[in-house]
Amino acid sequence: MERPISLGLALRKGDEPPWEYADGGADESPLLDFGDAREGSFFPGLKAASVKSLIPLGEAAGRPLKRLIDPDLGLAFQSSGWGSQYVPPPLVVNAGGFSLHAATLIRKGQRAQLEKLCRYVTRPAISLERFEVRPDGMVSWLLRKAWRDGTKGFVMTPYQFMARLAALAPHPREHQLTYQGVLAPASSLRDLVVPRPVVRKEPKDVDVADEDGSKSAGEPSKDQRYIRWADLLKRVF
Which GO BP terms apply (predicted)? Predict the structure, then answer.
């Protein structure tokens, strides 16, 4: 398999790129910096191409993916001026390539709202309902919301689709969750804000009588915190 081309994120106006390759190649965003793991890795190129909606591999590498565009929708966006001067809502900010939404508040005891939030942040990276294999073998991917230029989705070959899926895989030895401040592992205040786990006594196996009078051991108690994997799948799917 050929190595993907080096693709970078666009700089903001007036920014000077402080990073560069030793071989004088194209600049790449520090958001996609994998350090020593970059050598011999396909991930930086795959992730950069995915961010910019470009083809990462093959003879067409670096070219934009084919789009599904609704011209009338794009003209409607332009005529209405919607999104030309986007102002984020309170407690929402976009900076440094990341978006932060801090406007959600869950009070103590609101277990249903907490479960809803947990399902949202742990949702799958893709939705199968927005993918379709066309009669010509191409894969179409519909966006959840159309873009201001009328783009409603993308069309790609199965090979290009697999490359985009590979970009979603976490890179080896790459942390997915990092705690800072008082939640950092070495913080002297961590014990004051992180509750200690409650030590529960393991329930003893109790013989339970079946309908025919026989007894079976090992039935879990009702107050046990363990939830079967099948029941967890039902709650999510």
Answer: DNA transposition
User: CB under 8 Å to 210, separation ≥6 — which residues?
Assistant: 216
Long-range contact pairs involving 39-45 (C-beta distance under 8 Å, separation at least 24): 41/171, 42/1, 42/3, 42/4, 42/166, 43/166, 43/167, 43/169, 43/171, 44/6, 45/3, 45/4, 45/5, 45/6, 45/7
What's the structural domain count of the chain? 1
**pTM, 2 dp:** 0.51
> Per the domain annotation, does 204 fall within a domain?
no
The model's pLDDT over 190-214, given as tens digits with 9 standing for 90+, comes to 888 887 777 666 655 555 455 555 5
Residue identified by tokens 């942390």 is 175
**What is the rounded CA–CA span in Å between residue 6 and residue 42?**
10
From the CA atom positions of the chain, what is the Rg in Å?
25
Q: What does the alpha-carbon distance between residue 157 and residue 139 come to, in Å, rounded to a whole number?
A: 6
Q: Does any domain span residue 214?
A: no
Structure tokens at 236: 């999510």
Confirm whether 84 is domain-assigned. yes
| pLDDT tens track for 86-115 | 677 888 888 776 778 888 889 989 999 999
Domain membership of residue 18 (yes or no) is no
